[in-house]
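Quick one, probably user error.
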């Protein structure tokens, strides 16, 4: 499973980067977040909803 950050919704709050720095980072020059792995590690799939809900504006989603 792959996480996606909607770049139009992302408001640079950084909640995902702060809570999950091994999964998200700020893009250079824009301060918008991006998912940095190819796929969500299997051991974190059970936390998928928690990861999605960390974004206060709902910019994080899952792609299959």
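Nope, works fine. Designed sequence:
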């Amino acid at each position: 499973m792959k996480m996606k950050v909607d770049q139009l919704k992302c408001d640079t709050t950084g909640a995902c980067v702060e809570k999950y720095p091994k999964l998200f980072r700020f893009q250079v020059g824009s301060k918008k977040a991006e998912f940095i792995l190819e796929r969500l590690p299997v051991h974190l799939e059970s936390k998928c909803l928690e990861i999605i809900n960390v974004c206060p504006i709902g910019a994080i989603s899952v792609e299959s």
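The domain at 2-63 is CATH 3.30.70.20 (Alpha-Beta Plaits).
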